[in-house]
C-alpha cells in the first residue's frame, strides 16, 4: 500500500483490538445487508450519453481526452488525489483510487468496505514472501486471478468504490531487518520480476500467464514502490527523510528489474513511486524515472501514483522545493499523475496561477487517470453488462479460492531441519501432543500485514487438533515480544507429552510498515523458552517459525534436542491446516527460501548503506554478492524424499555463432572483452537462445515436488560480477522412483549478461558456468 506519513499504519486505522472486534469476528458471520449497484457513467439516463467519451468503439485514451476537454480547470485539479469527487454535470461518478490487494483483497485502503454490507470477508492467501518460496509463477498468476475476481465482485455488489489495486509490492528484500520484506517476493531480481509479471497478469484479468491484456481490465494493478525503497524506520532513520545513495549498476541489475517486468511483461497499468530520495532526487519528482524510464523506455500504459503523502513529505520533510506550489509543479512536470492524499488537489490551481505549472501539465495527468478508468469499464454503461458483470457475492471465498489458499501455503512451507527423520509424524501414532507458543492459536499470526478478514481461518492449534485427539496448548509467551514467559509450565507440559510442537517467531509488532528490526534474534525470552522445552521433552521437539523476515536460529539449528524446524512465513487463512498436513506427511515439503538467512553479526552493517556489492570490509548483500557466513542460504529447503538432479545441454560452445560474429563489430565493448547487449539486437539475441535440461529423479520414499534452481556463475567476481545469479526455476511433482526432464530456455542476452558500473549490460567473452545444485556445465561465449 501506499503508506501513511504518520508514524505507523495504526494511526490511520482503528486499533488492532477494535479492528478484530469490528471486522474479523463479523467475517465469520453471514452478512444480511442488501447489495447495491456500483455507480457508473454513460448509461441511458446519463447527461453524457452520446458524447464521444461514452463511445466504446473509440480507444480509451481518445475517450479520456474528450472527457478532460469538457472539464473546467477546477474539476481537473480535483481529480489529482486518491479521493476524487464526481463531476455531476458530465455524469462522472466519484472514485476512490486507494485499494489494496497484496495477498487477497484487503481493508488497508479507503475504497474497500468489509465492515458493512453482505460480504464481510475475502480469501486470505499467504503473505507474499511465503508464496514466493513456492517458486511457481503459475501459482502466483492464479492468486492474482482470484484476488482480482474477488475485488471486482466487491465492486459489483457496492462494497468497493474503486478497482485500482495498489499491489503488488515488488521491492527487493535487500536487508533482512526491513519490516516490509514480508510483502515482497524476496531478494532476487529474477524471482521478483517473474512474480511481478505473473501476479499483474492475473489480477488485471489476463486469461493465461502470457503477455495478453484483456480489453476491459478486471482490476488495475499498481507495482510499488519505485525505486530502491527498503528502509522504513531504523535507528531513527525514517523513510520520509532518508536520502539513499545508489549506484547506476545497482539500480540497473537489482532495484529496477522487477518494475520493468511489471510494465513490459505484465503490462501493469500503474507504477507507484516511493518516498525515497535517490541520489538527491525524490523518486516522485524524478523525471528520468517517471517519464524517461516508465513511459518512454518501458512503455507504461497507465498512470503514476505517489505513495501516501509523498508529495507533502517532499516539501515538509525533505525540503526539496521552497513552496507547496513549487513542489506540486516539480512532481507533475516529472510525470506524476496522482497523489495519495490531498496535497496536489490543494495546490495545483495556485501553482498554475503563479506560473509554476501549466494547464497542459494537469491535463496530461488527468488524461492518464481517466484512461485507466475507461479501461476498467467505468464509462461503458451498466457494469452488469460487461464481461465481469456476473461476478458477485457468490464469487468471493469460493471453494476454489479456499483450496488455492491452502495450495499456496502447502507449496511455500520450507523444511529447514529434519534430524533422523523426526518428520513426518505418523497420524494415529501420536498419543498426545503439546502445542506451545504465542503463534499457535492467533489468527492474526496467519495474516501478516495488508490483510482482509479471512473467510475460513484455521490456526496451527486447530490444524493439529484435526490429527491428534489429545492436544494440550500453552502460549508460553504473553506475545511475540515474549517479555513474560511461563517456562516451568511449558517444560512440565513438554515432559508429559508424546510430541512437542512449538510455534514461535515474530509479529507485526517487530516487523511491519514503519518498523524495521535492529536484531535478527528471536525476541525476548523465546530462545530460552524453546531451549527449556526441548530439554524437558521426551524426544526431539519440532519448531515452527511464523515470521516474515529471516531470524538467526543458530541455537536451534545446532541443538540435537530440536529435531525439526519449519519456516511457515505468515501462511494465510489455511496456514494451520497446511502446517498440520506437512507435519503429518500428507504434503511433502517443497518450499525454498527466497531470501538469505544471516547471522546476528550481519546487523553491524548499517541499513542505510545501499551498496549491493562487497567492497573492502563491506560484505555485500543477498546471495548474489554476499559470500560470508549464513544460517541458511537462498534457495535452501529440504524434502522428506531424496532427489537427484543433473544438468545437460547440447550447446556448450557459442564461440562461432555466425549471427554473433556478424553483429560483433558494432556490439564489441571498448576493451574488446565483452559485447553490449543493446547493440547485439533483439534478432540476434533471439537466435542465441538454447535449451538446457535438468534431469531429475525422486529416489523416495515419498511422492513429492522438486524445484530445480538454475544459476549462472562467472570465472571471477571482479568489476562487480555477482557470485552467482539465478537463471530460472522449474518444478515437477514426481512419484517415488519417477524421473523427469525439466526444460529451461537459456537466453545469453538475459542470463549471461552482467551490468557494468555505468549501468550498461554486457556479455563477457569466454567461459560461463551453468549450475544446478552441485553440478555445473561450462558454456563458452563469443569469438
UniProtKB/TrEMBL annotation:
Q: Which UniProt keywords apply?
A: Glycoprotein, Glycosidase, Hydrolase, Secreted, Signal
**GO process terms (BP):** arabinan catabolic process; xylan catabolic process
What residue range is the signal peptide? 1-34
Task: Report if keyword Glycoprotein is assigned.
Answer: yes
Q: Name one Pfam family in it.
A: Glyco_hydro_3
Name one cellular component (GO) term: extracellular region
Q: Could you tell me which SMART domains the record lists for this protein?
A: Fn3_like
Q: Could you tell me one molecular function GO term of this UniProt entry?
A: xylan 1,4-beta-xylosidase activity
Location of this chain's protein in the cell = Secreted
Q: Give residue ranges for domain Fibronectin type III-like.
A: 706-776
Keyword Acetylation among UniProt keywords = no
Q: What is this protein called?
A: Putative beta-D-xylosidase 7
Species the sequence originates in: Dichanthelium oligosanthes
Amino acid at each position: 500500500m501506499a503508506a501513511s506519513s504518520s508514524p505507523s499504519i495504526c494511526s490511520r486505522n482503528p486499533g488492532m483490538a477494535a479492528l478484530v472486534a469490528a471486522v474479523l469476528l463479523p467475517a465469520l458471520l453471514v452478512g444480511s445487508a442488501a447489495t447495491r449497484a456500483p455507480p457508473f457513467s454513460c448509461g441511458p439516463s446519463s447527461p453524457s450519453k452520446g458524447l464521444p467519451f461514452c463511445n466504446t468503439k473509440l480507444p480509451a485514451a481518445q475517450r479520456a481526452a474528450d472527457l478532460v476537454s469538457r472539464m473546467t480547470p477546477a474539476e481537473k485539479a480535483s481529480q489529482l488525489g486518491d479521493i476524487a469527487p464526481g463531476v455531476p454535470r458530465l455524469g462522472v461518478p466519484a472514485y476512490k483510487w486507494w485499494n489494496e490487494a497484496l495477498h487477497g483483497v484487503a481493508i488497508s485502503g479507503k475504497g474497500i468496505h468489509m465492515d458493512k454490507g453482505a460480504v464481510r470477508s475475502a480469501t486470505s492467501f499467504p503473505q507474499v514472501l511465503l508464496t514466493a518460496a513456492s517458486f511457481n509463477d503459475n501459482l502466483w498468476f492464479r492468486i492474482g486471478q482470484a484476488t482480482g475476481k474477488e475485488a471486482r465482485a466487491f465492486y459489483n455488489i457496492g462494497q468497493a468504490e474503486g478497482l485500482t489495486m495498489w499491489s503488488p509490492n515488488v521491492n527487493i528484500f535487500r536487508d533482512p531487518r526491513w519490516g516490509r520484506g514480508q510483502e515482497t517476493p524476496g531478494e532476487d531480481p529474477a524471482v521478483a520480476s517473474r512474480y511481478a509479471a505473473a501476479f499483474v497478469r492475473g489480477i488485471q484479468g489476463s486469461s493465461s500467464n502470457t503477455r495478453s491484456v484483456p480489453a476491459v481490465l478486471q482490476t488495475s494493478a499498481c507495482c510499488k514502490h519505485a525505486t530502491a525503497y527498503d528502509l522504513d524506520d531504523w535507528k531513527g532513520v525514517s523513510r520520509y527523510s532518508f536520502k539513499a545513495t545508489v549506484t547506476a549498476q545497482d539500480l540497473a541489475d537489482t532495484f529496477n528489474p522487477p518494475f520493468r517486468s511489471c510494465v513490459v511483461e505484465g503490462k501493469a497499468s500503474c507504477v507507484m513511486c516511493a518516498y525515497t530520495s535517490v541520489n538527491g532526487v525524490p523518486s516522485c519528482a524524478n523525471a528520468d524515472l517517471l517519464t524517461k524510464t516508465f513511459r518512454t523506455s518501458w512503455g507504461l500504459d497507465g498512470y503514476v501514483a505517489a505513495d501516501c503523502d509523498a508529495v507533502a513529505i517532499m516539501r515538509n520533510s525533505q525540503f526539496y522545493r521552497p513552496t507547496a506550489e513549487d513542489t506540486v509543479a516539480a512532481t507533475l512536470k516529472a510525470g506524476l499523475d496522482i497523489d495519495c492524499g490531498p496535497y496536489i488537489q490543494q495546490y495545483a490551481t495556485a501553482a498554475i496561477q503563479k506560473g509554476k505549472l501549466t494547464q497542459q501539465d494537469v491535463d496530461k495527468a488527468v488524461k492518464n487517470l481517466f484512461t485507466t478508468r475507461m479501461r476498467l469499464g467505468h464509462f461503458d454503461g451498466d457494469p452488469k453488462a460487461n464481461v465481469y458483470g456476473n461476478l458477485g457475492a457468490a464469487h468471493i471465498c469460493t471453494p476454489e479460492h479456499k483450496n488455492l489458499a491452502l495450495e499456496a501455503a502447502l507449496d511455500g512451507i520450507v523444511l529447514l531441519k529434519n534430524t533422523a527423520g523426526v518428520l513426518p509424524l505418523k497420524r494415529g501414532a501420536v498419543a498426545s501432543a503439546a502445542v506451545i507458543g504465542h503463534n499457535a492459536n492467533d489468527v492474526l499470526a496467519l495474516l501478516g500485514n495488508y490483510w482482509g478478514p479471512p473467510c475460513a481461518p484455521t490456526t496451527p492449534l486447530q490444524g493439529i487438533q484435526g490429527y491428534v485427539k489429545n492436544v494440550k496448548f500453552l502460549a508460553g509467551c504473553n506475545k511475540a515480544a515474549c517479555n513474560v514467559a511461563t517456562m516451568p509450565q511449558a517444560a512440565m507440559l513438554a515432559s508429559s507429552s508424546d510430541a512437542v510442537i512449538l510455534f514461535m517467531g515474530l509479529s507485526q509488532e517487530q516487523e511491519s510498515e514503519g518498523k524495521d528490526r535492529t536484531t535478527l534474534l528471536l525476541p525476548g525470552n523465546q530462545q530460552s523458552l524453546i531451549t527449556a522445552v526441548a530439554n524437558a521433552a521426551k524426544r526431539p521437539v519440532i519448531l515452527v517459525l511464523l515470521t516474515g523476515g529471516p531470524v538467526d536460529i543458530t541455537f536451534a539449528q545446532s541443538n540435537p534436542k530440536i529435531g525439526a524446524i519449519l519456516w511457515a512465513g505468515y501462511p494465510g487463512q489455511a496456514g494451520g491446516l497446511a502446517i498440520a498436513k506437512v507435519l503429518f506427511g500428507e504434503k511433502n515439503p517443497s518450499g525454498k527460501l527466497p531470501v538469505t538467512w544471516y547471522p546476528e553479526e550481519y546487523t553491524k552493517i548499517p541499513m542505510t548503506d545501499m551498496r549491493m556489492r562487497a567492497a573492502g570490509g563491506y560484505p555485500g548483500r543477498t546471495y548474489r554478492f554476499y559470500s560470508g557466513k549464513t544460517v541458511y542460504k537462498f534457495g535452501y529447503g529440504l524434502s522428506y524424499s531424496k532427489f537427484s538432479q543433473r544438468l545437460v545441454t547440447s550447446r556448450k560452445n557459442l564461440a562461432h555463432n555466425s549471427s554473433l560474429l556478424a553483429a560483433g563489430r558494432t556490439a564489441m565493448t571498448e576493451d574488446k572483452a565483452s559485447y553490449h547487449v543493446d547493440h547485439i539486437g533483439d534478432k540476434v539475441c533471439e537466435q542465441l537462445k538454447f535449451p538446457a535440461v535438468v534431469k531429475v529423479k525422486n529416489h523416495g520414499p515419498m511422492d513429492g515436488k522438486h524445484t530445480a534452481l538454475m544459476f549462472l556463475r562467472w570465472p571471477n567476481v571482479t568489476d562487480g560480477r555477482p557470485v552467482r545469479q539465478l537463471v530460472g526455476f522449474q518444478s515437477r511433482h514426481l512419484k517415488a522412483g519417477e524421473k523427469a526432464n525439466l526444460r529451461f530456455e537459456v537466453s545469453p542476452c538475459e542470463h549471461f549478461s552482467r551490468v557494468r558500473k555505468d549501468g550498461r549490460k554486457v556479455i563477457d567473452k569466454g567461459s560461463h558456468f551453468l549450475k544446478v545444485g552441485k553440478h555445473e556445465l561450462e558454456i563458452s561465449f563469443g569469438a
